[in-house]
Fold:
Amino acid sequence: MEYDKLYCNKQNIRSLLQSLFAVGCAIGMASMPIIGDIIGRRKTILLALLLNVLSTSLLLIGINYNVEFIMMIGIVLAGASSQGISSIGFISTCDFC
Structure:
């Protein structure tokens, strides 16, 4: 089976996706605690999990159909959701201690 849809050999796209993941992490770290204060931490974690499912779906579509723009949106959402889950989880853990 041929694996020509993987992006391991395209250095410029790989670097761009890594940078976009870092941008998504910064967006998630800045926005999710504020959203957690407004709508509640449980709803924010559920929102971040929903974003995680959406980003995984977009990444799968982007890889299978070889569409870089969809992958870029998916990787930004993946970074935002991962940092949202970890930051809200950390805040919730500190509240219980």
About this structure: The helical segments are 11-39, 41-64, 68-96.
